[in-house]
C-alpha cells in the first residue's frame, strides 16, 4: 500500500509529462484541422475546375450556335432565286420561251383538286387492346379466387359468407 503514494509523488515530480500530453493533444487537433482544411481545399478546387469546364462548354455551345446560324445564312444565300439563276446561266442554261414548251397529254389522268389530309380508306373496326389487358386488378382477383376456391358455390369473398 505504500507504493501508491510513491507513484503519485513520482508522477507529480515530472511536469514534462503533463506538458507533453497537452502538446500532443494540441498537435493532434492542429493535424485534424489541417486535414479538414486540405479536404475543403480539394473539394473547392474540384468545384472550381468543373465550373471552368462548364464555362468552356457554354462558350463552345455559343460558338457552335453562331457557326450554325452563319451556315444557315450561307445556305439561304446559295438557295436564293438570284443565286440559283446566276449558277444556271454559268452552266449554260437559259430561260425557256413559250414556243419551246411542249405538254404531254396522258389519257385517264385526273388532276387532283385539293390536298386530302384525312385518310378515306375504310378500315375494319378492331379493338386496340385484347381483353386480357382491359381487365382491372380487382376483376382479376375475383376471377382468380373464383377459379381457385370453387367460385359459384355460394362463397362470397367480400361479405365473409360461409358455404
Keywords, separated by commas or semicolons:
163 residues, flat, disordered C terminus
Q: What oligomeric arrangement do these chains adopt?
A: single chain
Shape: flat
| Structural class computed from helices and strand pairing | mainly alpha
Low-confidence blocks of residues: 159-163
Question: What profile does the largest beta sheet have?
Answer: none
Number of DSSP helices?
A: 5
Tell me what portion of residues adopts beta-strand conformation: under 5%
State the total count of DSSP E strands.
0
Helical content band? 55-70%
Radius of gyration: 46 Å
Summarize the helix and strand pattern as letters: HHHHH
Distance between the termini: 88 Å
Structural overview:
The structure is a single chain. This protein is mainly alpha-helical and 163 residues long. The chain has a domain at 16-90. It is built from five helices and no strands. The radius of gyration is 46 Å and the shape is flat. It starts with a helix and ends in a 15-residue tail after the last helix. 0% of the residues are buried.
